[in-house]
Design a protein that fits this description.
The complex is a heteropentamer of chains A (173), B (489), C (690), D (509) and E (107).
Chain A: H1 3-25, H2 29-49, H3 53-79, H4 94-119, H5 124-132, H6 135-144, H7 148-169
Helix pairs in contact in A: 1-2, 2-3
Chain B: H1 2-7, H2 9-27, H3 36-54, E1 60-62, E2 67-69, H4 71-92, H5 102-121, H6 125-143, H7 150-181, H8 186-195, H9 202-219, H10 227-234, H11 237-262, E3 264-266, E4 272-274, H12 281-300, H13 305-326, H14 329-360, H15 371-374, H16 376-390, H17 396-410, H18 415-441, H19 456-474, H20 477-488
Chain D: H1 6-23, H2 29-53, E1 62-70, E2 75-81, H3 85-102, H4 110-129, H5 133-142, H6 144-154, H7 159-187, H8 195-200, E3 209-212, E4 215-218, H9 219-234, H10 243-250, H11 253-278, H12 280-307, H13 311-332, H14 335-366, H15 388-401, H16 408-421, H17 427-452, H18 468-486, H19 489-508
Antiparallel strand pairs in D: 1-2, 3-4
Helix pairs in contact in D: 1-2, 1-4, 2-3, 2-4, 3-4, 3-11, 3-14, 3-18, 4-5, 4-6, 4-11, 5-7, 6-7, 7-9, 7-10, 9-11, 10-11, 10-13, 11-13, 11-14, 12-13, 12-17, 13-14, 13-16, 13-17, 14-15, 14-16, 14-18, 14-19, 15-17, 15-18, 16-18
The chains are: A mainly alpha (173), B mainly alpha (489), C mainly alpha (690), D mainly alpha (509), E mainly alpha (107).
Chain lengths: 173, 489, 690, 509, 107
């Protein structure tokens, strides 16, 4: 991988983390939602570099194109009508939130460093080969063989979610 | 593949009925005006149960090892189908579910039952996650099924937030396990763990706790229990009825399966021993103790019966978790017995709450005043259910506790937990009798002291739940033997 | 003979059952049932007594198994005492029994007859007879019992009858108080008596009297200790306490005067002739034990002497005729106990018998008087001699007997007791005060008894109205008086004068002494420890002194109340504090009732009940709720609404505090739930990965 | 005839009666009442038959019925009676039968009342007949259910509180018993619930330890304590007694009778049935503690009774005091003491039953039970003149209760004291305990004086005397009290061999 | 190891995912706005997704991890849909989406 590529990855990672930070702490929910979009984009780039081209696409389509837009709509539907509450951080949970989130850090740090050291085992050539191979076909094949059951099962989930969401959203006749 | 399909037949049956219902509803919109969808659910549950019975004897991994078929799975299938069927039956007479929504309701509980099956079947983290999420997402909707009720919506919202975070933690934990072992299926994880020879890295424990978050939230064990009372109280009663039995049992089934296949080694003779170095017992004991205490103590101060029963269901989770402390086949079969007993008595108790709620438009203790005298059969049934929940002999709840405590004592450790357990059951008596007090010991308000006639279907149903509660309390060995067979298969 | 003893008891018992169940519906309310029953008993007792007179000794026993509890022989050193236990009951007829039986049945018969007249027309007439029948059965049962358990049972049955009869006029508050007081006071003694029985059982393994006598003779129990003191001493003291309670000895004498609330025949029968004497009878029956215990007898003597003196003093100032007799009874019982204490076994027992006769006579006579003038206050009487000649005469004879005038029975027994006491005093000079007190008491007795006679029968009528209506009682009442008066002559028991040296030449009737001598050897009683010389000397001296003091007493009494040479009122004034002290019975009642019971005991019970209610119940159970409440009020400032809600629900359980605390976490805010969850989650992480 | 499952019949005929009564048509209270008479009468008749056919010469259990019930746990349906249970069984059937009559005046929910009552009788019978611990436990707990409703529905002013208090207390005790039971099962080899087998192999519990809260304890002592607390609550032994005044006072008359007459005995029965033979060493170890508790019960109960203003509460506390004698006798480890204790169980059953019945009689007429009303005025007073028969009955009952010789209470108290005193270890306790006799007389007679004697309280001048039903209800008890007071052997010889065996088993330890 | 290499290493991916997880949890805990909470949830899920993808490459070099991420995305979408439906219903009933306002059910 060239240094340029590495730079792009680094920038994507920084974008992801930075946007996420804004998502978390920006008092304006609208900005948060927008920065979530950037974060997702960054993640999509990271996926790309991790050899998950298909997933990067799905990430963009589903998250960036779907979920985030949905969220923005929701914000507009709700917040637009009452602007008062746009600034919504400052609730009494901030201190415990910070403390708890920071409290998680040492655990995560210790665990993930440990994990990172263990994982180095995979041979780099294989990794590179894996990263280079196109995933769409592989995934498609997997979905129809090994992963057919989750594939089918998730349809039931989606059906349920669909029916449920419609039921909730529909006004009483 | 065909064998896999055959193994999956009960769920397929369910899916088939589900799709048919979806189609029928689309083509014949009038169907939703009557009780057809609910009856359809009962029929499909019955059919799925028959399918389970027919497919009995298959065992092993199917669908490339994503799911596995054991006696345990068969038991939980029966359990879920039964719970779902009873819920539909309960809903038949309930006024809380909007008539227009019967179709959706039926569809959703069938979907949920499917998800619960998946949870228990899962032999692979992905399947587990899909199962849990299916159950969760549909639960969110069901909790808020009364669209026009703020309480129902609030229940739904809380459930959502709590569920999303817990399952998020779980999937993160799963990702760590994946990173650590490179595997997602339980047996492969067990293999990897065995290689550690008793010393497991920090990250494994980190992941384990995170994964437990998902289970704990599903079974509402301490400290992931906070949502339970709010959600049960806010949800329509038939939904709460289902929640208190179905997903909870599914969580236990999945946890049981996970613990048995991913964290234990199977020795000959069907005995499981935990993989060296995995000491679940001390932490399980603490969790169990805390769950019991929190559930029971909180229930004491409640005035809303539904909420009280919600806390009581938390307490019962504590008792069941005691079985995980011991981790012997006998303990697991006690868990199964407990779940069976709990199913009947808890469904019954919630059902009666539902009936009263329909009559009085509320489930406060004061709404129960004199109900025993107004409908003696219901009053007697409620007494049976509540005494059984307390663990008074003659009723199945006692046998459940008897077995669970017996296992603890047999293990000759954690006696303090047994002691705490029995004292908790005394505490529980206090609030259970509050309900009985209202029903029998207090006079109904004069305005409505007339006899309340229950429809035959409800009477039959209640007696159908009360009888097993009594019979299991006196002759429990067949069921216990069955549970032992299920565990060792 | 022993068989007939059973019948002697069974007859009045049957009468009781009949009377209690159907008495009301029988003709004359069934009084004849009781009378016939007791006469039957008398008829059965007489042959036994006659046999005693004829042969000088009777002895027969009869035993039944009463309670049989199987066991096995204990392993040695085992903490388990599982020997088989067999409690037997039975009849022991010996000379004592024969004499007592005769005396009791005789007195009881006479009093029954008297009652038919005295109680005539009272409400609950049948019950009265039921009670005294039951009482008679109890007393007779006590007399024939061969073991202390049944003796105790009968003892208590008498106590019950006493309770019922004192409270016979149950609508009178004073009667109720008196009956309760009598029962409770005697029960103090009874409980200790029972402990004594337990002790005997522990030491001898039986409560059978004959076996106990045998045991004492062979020295059983001399080395056993009980609660750290020699077992026999413990037992002896306990038995003594029984006597103190039943015979109204110091310091439990308070109940007997109050017991006069009962109908007069009851006072005669129960509180003079028989029941109170049963206390002394107990001492007689268990005398070998007391002797073996050594330390007990001096205490008994002290108690007796004190009681005799103190009671006599009170009697000096009483104005109620029955109260005077009551204190005199206490005083005389004191003599008996004193006698027992100093080792004067036979005279002590003799005094029981003689006292029974003349005191019953006195009481019945006083009853006759009361019956006729409808008052008990002597100040309202006077000059009844002419109106009630028979009553006067019989009462006068009895008074002579109690005062210790030679020729009458009281002299015989009292003189001998005093003689023995003096001998005892001479042997133990430090105890000399005992005979001295005894002599003083004898003088006082003569004084107050004649005071009674003078105030009642002599002088002029102080209440004309009452005097006018006074009349002699019917024959049913006077007949018993005459019989009892006849029995008050010394000749019945000893010689015609009662003075030993004189009688020995006149008419040697010494059946009593013979009978008692035989008993003494049978039981192994040693009696007085004094040299023959001292004894002889003491007896001579005692006779002279007692004659002198009795004479002095009568003389002073005559001066004061008959001739009015000495003004009683002046004396009263001069000795005001003493009079007040005596009038208030040395404040014993006040001490017991106002201080011990009202100030100590009742508050204690109330305290205890409060403790139970408030502390044991509430702290252990509901207290936790209070803790919760306090906790709540502290936190109340933060969350008013929650508090309000909780206040409604003040559930009283151990755990509501915990429940309440936990409720505070359930705020309904989902994020707070999550925070709590994460806190615990973090702890879990920490715990698992530590 | 010996083949007839007489114990099962006695246990389940009332249960059958319960269902029959529930099936009877509504609105016919008399039919229900007479049905109850029949269904309690049959067990009574069987009990009488049992009495005459019980072999008094052996300590073995008799009329045994033994069927395997739950094989997995070796649980058996094992019924049988020995000398310890027979008096209790007889007491149960007798009092149940009488209580049906005592409840005649119940008007509210007659069907439910009698159904519950019969259920209760079945439970009580079962407790006394069961020889399998599991079975025993089931009956023991099952009894609570009807009791809860009987107090809670048909009770007095504070019935709800009383009922739940009773229920909670007893349950708290019995869950400890449950744990002990499970431990006994799992620590015994082979695993068994058979009480006789457990007693037979009692040495297997020795020299084992259990860990609780990080400390080591001797197994047999821990189990002993667990069982003891369970039974102590029922007895009730101080300080577990506070449910008793509430429950007794609030319960309807017949239920108070059953409570005091039978239920309290279950505690002491359990101690003698389980703690003594199964853990003899621990029993010896704890004997002094038991003795102290017994004495506390005697004195404490008496003191509390003395201060009561409510007639029924007084009787209730007197039960606390009287059960103290039982504990005392049991802990004395002497033949006379233990026989006296069991005798006292029986005698207290009859005499307290009488007292409660009589209090109920008064309550039915004047609707209060105050000796002194809360406002300080007189509650009763001088009613002897209007109700002579009642007064007589009351006198018999309370004299029996205070241990007057010639009535049954004396026999048992005397045996207890004689026995305890003959154990040198405990003589001082007897001296203290004997204070109880005194206090007993004091509070009972004081009550008698304030209620029955003295000038008539005009409020009650229209009080009617006992009717025939009430008289007949009390008559059998009256006769028993007197007969057993004079000649106790009819009951004493039932239990002799059994208790001898029990004691010798302790002695071997 | 320099920053560039770090970015392409497993540690880099894990660091990003852990930060996302932490921020997600922080969001969930502190946002008053119901939609804000939802954003936090999405962050958590994406953190897990990154892990799976990373392990898929760096550890096993197999596709399994990616499959899981795929399903996570799908499920997250479904969840978001339902969540938004619920939140809109919340808004319609209460005229606010302040999570604190959901406190009818408590104690």
């Amino acid at each position: 991988m060239t240094n340029g590529m590495k730079w792009i990855l680094l920038i994507a990672e920084l974008l992801t983390v930075g946007s996420a930070l804004i998502v978390a702490i920006n008092p304006n929910i609208l900005y948060s939602a927008v920065f979530l979009l950037f974060s997702f984009l960054g993640i999509a780039v990271m996926y790309l570099f991790a050899g998950a081209d298909f997933l990067a696409g799905v990430q963009v389509v589903v998250y960036v194109g779907g979920v985030t837009i949905l969220i923005l709509f929701a914000i507009m539907l709700t917040q637009w009508l009452y602007r008062l509450k746009l600034k919504d951080i400052g609730s009494k949970f901030v201190v415990p939130g910070v403390v708890l989130a920071l409290g998680l850090v040492p655990f995560l740090h210790r665990g993930l460093t440990q994990l990172g050291k263990m994982v180095q085992a995979a041979p780099p050539e294989k990794m590179a080969e894996f990263a280079a191979s196109p995933k769409t076909a592989m995934i498609g094949k997997a979905l129809l063989t090994n992963y057919v059951l989750p594939f089918e099962a998730v349809t039931i989930l989606l059906l349920g979610a669909l029916v449920g969401a419609v039921w909730l959203a529909r006004p009483k006749a | 593949m065909l064998v896999s399909l055959k193994a999956f037949a009960p769920e397929l049956t369910l899916v088939g009925f589900l799709s048919l219902l979806f189609l029928l509803d689309g083509f014949v919109p009038k169907l939703r005006e009557n009780r057809f969808p609910l009856i359809w659910v009962i029929v499909s549950c019955f059919a799925a149960g028959v399918a389970t019975a027919v497919g009995k004897g298959l065992s092993g991994d199917f669908f490339s090892g994503l799911v596995t078929e054991t006696g345990l799975v068969a038991f939980f299938r029966y359990f879920f189908f039964f719970a779902c069927g009873v819920t539909a039956y309960v809903t038949l007479g309930s006024k809380e579910i909007e008539e227009r929504g019967r179709s959706e309701f039926s569809l959703l509980i069938l979907c949920m039952t499917f998800g619960m099956s998946l949870m228990v079947l899962a032999n692979h983290f992905l399947m587990l996650y899909i199962g849990i999420e299916t159950v969760s997402i549909i639960s969110f909707v069901l909790a808020g099924f009364n669209r026009e009720s703020s309480r129902s919506n609030e229940a739904s919202f809380k459930y959502l937030v709590y569920g999303a975070v817990s399952s998020g933690l779980m999937i993160y934990g799963i990702s760590l396990v994946y990173g650590y072992t490179g595997a997602l299926s339980y047996p492969a994880i067990a293999e990897a763990l065995i290689k550690n020879n008793g010393t497991h890295p920090f990250v494994f424990y980190l992941a384990l706790v995170m994964i437990y978050a998902g289970f704990a939230y599903k079974i509402s064990s301490f400290p992931f229990h906070f949502w339970t009372p709010d959600v049960y109280e806010g949800s329509p009663t038939p939904v709460a009825t289902f929640f208190s039995v179905g997903p909870k049992a599914a969580g236990f089934g999945a946890l049981l399966h996970f613990v048995l296949t991913a964290l234990s080694q199977k020795q000959e003779g069907g005995v499981f021993t935990p993989i060296a170095g995995i000491q679940l017992a001390p932490v399980m004991a603490l969790i169990s103790a805390a769950t019991m205490v929190v559930g029971n103590l909180s229930a004491i101060a409640q005035t809303n019966v539904k909420r009280m029963l919600a806390f009581s269901s938390i307490a019962h989770v504590g008792y069941v978790l005691m079985g995980f402390v011991v981790m012997t086949p006998a303990a697991f079969s006690s868990i199964i017995f407990y779940l069976i007993a709990y199913c009947a008595m808890n469904l019954g108790a919630f059902w009666i709450v539902g009936i009263v709620t329909d009559e009085k438009k509320g489930s406060e203790l004061s709404d129960f005043k004199g109900m025993g005298w107004r409908t003696p059969v219901m009053g007697v049934c409620m007494a049976i259910f509540l005494f059984s929940l307390t663990g008074i002999p003659l009723f199945s709840g006692f046998i459940g506790k008897f077995l669970i405590f017996g296992n603890l004592i047999q293990s000759q450790s954690y006696l303090w937990l047994a002691l705490l357990g029995v004292l908790n059951s005394v505490v529980s008596l206090y609030y259970y009798t509050k309900i009985l007090r209202a029903m029998w010991l207090e006079k109904p308000e004069s305005s409505d002291s007339a006899e309340l006639r229950l429809p035959l279907s409800q009477l039959v149903g209640l007696l159908g739940l009360a009888l097993p509660t009594v019979i299991l309390g006196l002759f429990f060995s067949p069921v216990l033997e069955m549970a032992q067979r299920w565990i060792t298969q | 003979m022993a068989q007939s003893c059973l019948w002697i008891v069974a007859l009045p018992l049957t009468a009781f059952v009949i009377q209690a169940l159907v008495g009301k519906r029988l003709p004359r309310q069934g009084d004849w049932v009781s009378v016939l029953a007791i006469l039957g008993s008398f008829a059965l007792a007489t042959p036994i007594f006659l046999k005693l007179l004829a042969t000088g000794a009777v002895h027969e026993t009869l035993q039944f198994n009463w309670m049989v509890m199987p066991g096995v022989d204990a392993v040695s050193n085992s903490p388990i005492l599982n020997k088989a236990v067999t409690l037997t009951v039975g009849v022991l007829v010996n000379n004592l029994t024969a004499i007592m039986l005769f005396m009791v049945t005789l007195c009881a018969s006479l009093i029954h007859i008297f009652s038919t007249g005295y109680m005539h027309g009272e409400s609950r007439y049948h019950l009265f007879f039921a009670y005294i029948s039951l009482f008679s059965a109890g007393m007779l049962g006590l007399v024939i019992s061969d073991n202390l358990l049944t003796l105790f049972m009968c003892w208590e049955v008498m106590g019950l009858c006493s309770y019922l009869l004192i409270g016979f006029y149950y609508q009178k508050l004073s009667a109720n108080n008196a009956s309760l007081k009598a029962f409770m006071t005697t029960r103090v003694g009874d409980v200790m008596f029972f402990l004594g029985i337990c002790g005997l059982y522990y030491v001898f393994g039986t409560s059978n009297l004959s076996q106990i006598y045998e045991g004492i003779k062979t020295g059983v129990g001399s080395d056993v200790t009980l609660l750290g003191i020699p077992a026999l001493a413990f037992i002896g003291f306990m038995l003594m306490m029984g006597t103190i309670g039943k015979s109204a000895q110091f310091p439990l004498q308070v109940w007997l005067p109050d017991a006069m609330e009962g109908p007069t025949p009851v006072s005669a029968l129960i509180h003079a002739a028989t029941m109170v004497a049963a206390g002394v009878f107990l001492l007689v029956r268990t005398y070998p034990v007391l002797e073996a215990a050594k330390v007990v007898l001096p205490v008994i003597a002290t108690v007796g002497a004190l009681t005799a003196f103190l009671a006599a003093c009170i009697a000096l100032v009483q104005v109620d005729i029955k109260k005077v007799l009551a204190y005199s009874t206490i005083s005389q019982l004191g003599f008996m106990v004193l006698g027992m204490g100093v080792g004067s076994f036979a005279p002590g027992f003799m005094h029981v018998i003689t006292h029974a006769c003349f005191k019953a006579c006195l009481f019945l006579a006083s009853g006759s008087v009361i019956h006729s003038v409808h008052t008990q206050d002597m100040r309202e009487m006077g000059g009844l001699r002419s109106k009630m000649p028979i009553t006067f005469l019989t009462m006068f004879i009895a008074t002579l007997a109690i005062a210790g005038v030679p020729g009458f029975s009281g002299f015989v027994s009292k003189d001998r007791i005093l003689g023995d006491a003096l001998a005892y005093g001479m042997t133990h000079p430090s105890q000399m005060w005992i005979p001295v007190l005894g002599f003083i008491t004898a003088g006082l007795t003569a004084f107050y008894m004649f005071r009674l006679i003078f105030m009642t029968f002599f002088g002029h009528a102080r209440d004309e109205h009452k005097h006018h209506h006074a009349h002699e009682s019917p024959i049913t009442m006077t007949f018993p008086l005459m019989v009892l008066a006849a029995l008050s002559f010394a000749i019945v028991f000893a010689g015609p004068t009662g003075i030993h040296s004189v009688d020995a030449n006149l008419l040697p009737i010494h059946w009593f002494d013979h009978a008692l001598d035989h008993v003494k050897t049978e039981m192994g009683v040693q009696g007085l420890h004094a040299s023959e010389e001292v004894e002889h000397h003491a007896h001579s001296l005692a006779m002279i002194v007692s004659l002198v003091v009795a004479g002095l007493g009568i003389f002073l009494s005559a001066l004061t109340y008959l001739k009015k040479v000495i003004s009683a009122a002046a004396f009263e004034k001069a000795l005001k504090p003493v009079h007040t002290l005596l009038w208030n019975k040395y404040y014993f009642d006040d001490l017991y009732i106002k201080v011990v019971i009202q100030k100590l005991f009742l508050p204690l019970t109330v305290l205890m009940a409060k403790f139970d209610d408030k502390v044991v119940d509430h702290i252990f159970v509901d207290g936790w709720a209070k803790v919760a409440m306090v906790l709540k009020s502290v936190i109340a400032k933060f969350d008013d609404v929650v508090v309000d809600k909780l206040a409604v629900d003040g559930s009283g359980t151990v755990v509501s505090a915990g429940g309440w605390v936990l409720r505070q976490f359930q705020t309904g805010k989902v994020q707070q739930y999550l925070i709590l969850t994460f806190i615990v989650f973090g702890m879990l992480l920490f715990y698992m990965t530590r | 005839m010996a083949q007839l499952p007489i114990l099962s019949l006695m246990t389940f005929i009332p249960l059958l009666g319960m269902f029959v009564i529930l099936a009877l048509p509504k609105g016919k209270p008399n039919m229900v009442r007479w049905a109850s008479v029949i269904f309690t009468g049959i067990p009574l008749l069987l009990g009488i038959w049992l009495y005459f056919n019980f072999d008094r010469t052996t300590a073995a259990v008799q009329f045994v019925e033994r069927v395997s019930w739950i094989k997995a746990f070796n649980i058996e349906y094992y019924m049988g009676i020995d000398g310890l249970s027979v008096p209790m069984v007889l007491l149960t059937v007798l009092l149940s039968f009488l209580c049906v009559f005592a409840s005649w005046g119940i008007e509210k929910g007659v069907k439910g009342y009698y159904a519950m009552f019969l259920f209760l009788e079945a439970g009580m019978m079962g407790v006394f007949c069961a020889l399998d611990f599991f079975l025993f436990f089931i009956f023991w707990e099952v009894m609570l259910l009807p009791m809860y409703f009987l107090i809670g529905i048909w009770g007095g002013k504070d019935k709800v509180y009383a009922a739940i208090k009773f229920f909670l207390y007893t349950l708290a005790g019995s869950v400890l018993m449950l744990l002990a039971m499970l431990a006994m099962y799992y620590y015994s080899e082979p695993h068994t619930f058979d009480l006789l087998a457990l007693a037979q192999n009692h040495t297997q519990f020795l020299n084992k330890t259990v860990t609780l809260f990080g400390a080591q304890y001797a197994l047999d002592k821990i189990l002993w304590i667990g069982l003891f607390i369970g039974f102590a609550i029922k007895v009730p032994i101080w300080p577990f007694h506070t449910w008793l005044p509430w429950a007794h006072v609030e319960a309807p008359t017949a239920v108070s009778v059953i409570l005091a007459g039978v239920l309290l005995k279950m505690g002491t029965y359990g101690l003698l049935r389980m703690n003594y033979p199964i853990f003899p060493e621990a029993t010896l170890w704890a004997s002094t503690a038991m003795m102290i508790l017994g004495v506390i019960n005697i004195i404490y109960g008496a003191f509390c009774a003395m201060a009561q203003k409510d007639l029924k509460k007084l009787v209730a506390y007197s039960s606390v005091s009287h059960m103290g004698y039982v504990i005392m006798g049991m802990a004395s480890f002497t033949t006379a003491g233990v026989n006296g204790a069991v005798m006292q169980m029986f005698n207290h059953g009859t005499s307290t039953a009488m007292l409660f019945l009589l209090v109920g009689v008064a309550y039915d007429r004047v609707h209060h039970r105050w000796i002194i009303k809360p406002d300080g005025s007189k509650g009763f007073g001088g009613i002897a003149s209007v109700v002579p028969v009642y007064t007589g009955m009351m006198a018999i009952a309370l004299f029996a209760s205070l241990g007057l010789p010639g009535l049954s209470g004396f026999i048992s108290e005397a045996l207890v004291f004689l026995g305890t005193f003959s154990n040198p270890k405990y003589q001082s306790y007897v001296v203290v305990g004997s204070l109880g006799i005194l206090l007993g007389a004091a509070y009972l007679l004081w009550m008698f004086m304030r209620v029955f004697l003295g000038p008539l309280n005009e409020e009650h001048k229209d009080m009617t005397d006992m009717n025939w039903r009430e008289k007949l209800t009390l008559l059998p008890l009256c006769v028993l009290v007197i007969v057993l007071g004079v000649y106790p052997m009819p009951v004493l010889n039932l239990m002799g061999p059994t208790l001898a065996k029990l004691l010798s088993a302790l002695g071997v330890a | 190891m320099n920053l560039l290499d770090f970015s392409n290493s497993i540690e880099g991916y894990l660091l990003v995912s852990s930060i996302l997880l932490t921020l997600g949890i922080f969001s969930v805990l502190t946002r008053k706005n119901a939609i804000g909470i939802l954003l936090g949830v999405e962050l958590i899920l994406n953190a897990a997704g990154i892990n799976f993808v990373a392990f898929s490459k760096f550890h096993s070099a197999a596709i399994d991890g990616q499959m899981v991420t795929l399903f996570i995305i799908l499920i997250a979408a479904a969840e978001a849909a339902v969540a938004l439906a619920i939140i809109l219903r919340f808004y319609r009933l209460k005229q606010t989406i302040d999570a604190d306002e959901a406190s009818l059910l408590r104690n």
